[in-house]
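U., I forgot to send this yesterday:
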Amino acid sequence: MNRKKFSDSKDSSQQQVLEQTIQYEKKIYDLEQLLDIAKSFCQNLDFSNLLESIVYICMAQMHVLGAEIFVRDLITNENFILETSKDFLSDKKTMIPVNTAVAAILNSEKRPLTFEELKKICPNCEHLKILETLNPTLIVPLIQKNHLNGMLVLQERIAIEDDASYSEYELNQIMSIASLASVAINNAALLEMSSTDMMTHLKLKYYFFNLLTEAIDAAFLNNQHIAVIMFDIDFFKKFNDTYGHECGDFVLKSVADLIRKNLRESDVASRYGGEEFTALLLEAGKDEAMAVAERIRSTINEHDFVYNDQHLHVTISGGVSVFDAQTNLVSSPNEFVNQADQGLYMSKNNGRNRVTYFDPKLKSSLKSANAKK
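Result:
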């Protein structure tokens, strides 16, 4: 009998040791996962790519079918904007005010809350309906230095053994990931702000040149075409002189917005300086680039700009240059942009409100002419 008790006790101890070993192995594995996640977040400073990375990592770690992220507006700091929405049918982004009770609760609780918990704490909170449209199972605060940076919304969960609830361990795990994500979002936001023109919300010139340098190298290696478009607002000075500088600012913002809306997601627009804008089009030859440039020109030409009840007619001129390893192997980003600028100059010289393609043959003829001299 004593032998049986001893044997049972031994088996029980071995079982406990085995269970503890499994638990510790899981914790070590999860810590290694967190380190990999931290490295991934730190290496990704592009704002949009970072948010996409956070979404996919959270979906995989928490076994959910979808996730969305609200981020505090980088410019006005007044709203949390749903930055990960893929609703391309609407130009209007989903927003929740920073001073909403929902944000106050998440900031004070500093822990993940299910949607049901949130409704119990604040049943009459405004903006709960906005969250409800996302089918949330868990809402996680993104906190940086006791400051709510945003909200991570985890959507429908894949049930494990018919249980779709979150364990305490999982809640701690997602909060750790959220803490890492919040730091990464803050860093990416700082870079985004330092590389963005605050008036037009387009990229700054120096940032554009950095991207263009990388794009030229990639196009050369992969034998691809890329295009640069340069735009200039026609007779811009008259808006400042006639209606004042606030009107000029209105025209700049409106034109920048129309340029951005008429580009693909992979393209990048920048405010080059003053009333000049540039756009980088990846994997675009002459026909594609000219079509995009002409679409932007005609959109602005037909747009009704209304400032203080005054209807303004705004036009732009453009120049297009295309990188081609065989016919137009530009040696530097400056040369590439200068070619588009020459196309723009020809548009201005030929009556404005038009787009001109820079013909690489012109470059060859200019070199030949200079050589003869």
